[in-house]
UniProtKB/TrEMBL annotation:
<dbReference type="Pfam" id="PF12973">
    <property type="entry name" value="Cupin_7"/>
</dbReference>
<feature type="domain" description="Putative zinc-finger">
    <location>
        <begin position="10"/>
        <end position="39"/>
    </location>
</feature>
<dbReference type="Pfam" id="PF13490">
    <property type="entry name" value="zf-HC2"/>
</dbReference>
<dbReference type="InterPro" id="IPR014710">
    <property type="entry name" value="RmlC-like_jellyroll"/>
</dbReference>
<dbReference type="InterPro" id="IPR011051">
    <property type="entry name" value="RmlC_Cupin_sf"/>
</dbReference>
<dbReference type="InterPro" id="IPR041916">
    <property type="entry name" value="Anti_sigma_zinc_sf"/>
</dbReference>
<dbReference type="InterPro" id="IPR025979">
    <property type="entry name" value="ChrR-like_cupin_dom"/>
</dbReference>
<protein>
    <submittedName>
        <fullName>ChrR family anti-sigma-E factor</fullName>
    </submittedName>
</protein>
<feature type="domain" description="ChrR-like cupin">
    <location>
        <begin position="110"/>
        <end position="197"/>
    </location>
</feature>
<dbReference type="InterPro" id="IPR012807">
    <property type="entry name" value="Anti-sigma_ChrR"/>
</dbReference>
<dbReference type="InterPro" id="IPR027383">
    <property type="entry name" value="Znf_put"/>
</dbReference>
Amino acid sequence: MRIRHHPDDALMLAYAAGSLGAGHRLLLDVHLEGCAACRQRMAQLNALGGVMLDELPPAELSPHALERVLARIDAGPGSLADAPRTSTVVGEKPWLPVAWPAAMSGCEVGPWRWMGPGMYWNRVVVPDAPQAKVFMLRIGAGRMLPQHTHSQSELTQVLWGAFDDGRSEFRAGDFDETDGSVRHQPTVQPNGDCICLASVEGTLRFDGWLARLMGASIGM
């Protein structure tokens, strides 16, 4: 599988710095899982970040910081109010023609739901971040999503098939980032379905009222 579209350096740096939202981070996790080139880039960015951190002047800790950390360690993990909660998949995952990404193993994935002729979606609940707007879209051969732009940003990872939105063709393994500067209408190639994982920050701004109603009902 030849991957042609990758996250840009700004997004990779945000990932390395831990400043991405949970949904966007999941999309990067899934892409990195299947892209050796981006894993190498990430290793280089992490190494660069470590050097930059070493060169920063020492920062003074807040008063009693050490005492609080030691007290929490002594109390044991069961008493930590902010300890991460484990999350398990509820029921069986919906059909997918390829192996499920390991990065999604802790996510709750809903069943495929109809949203239009030849088009289905489901919700992906990210562990400890139920507010993250992550979806899977399964669009039939030759079908197209309504034309739209974005109030903030949308990341898309192609899991199966291919689509073209006028800017380029995106195939399995490819990654796309769009924002308010992009107005597009993704159209699936005629030789088969396309399945994508998408993370939305803000909302999608559909051109037509019916598409806007559909997007609002889904939570996009």
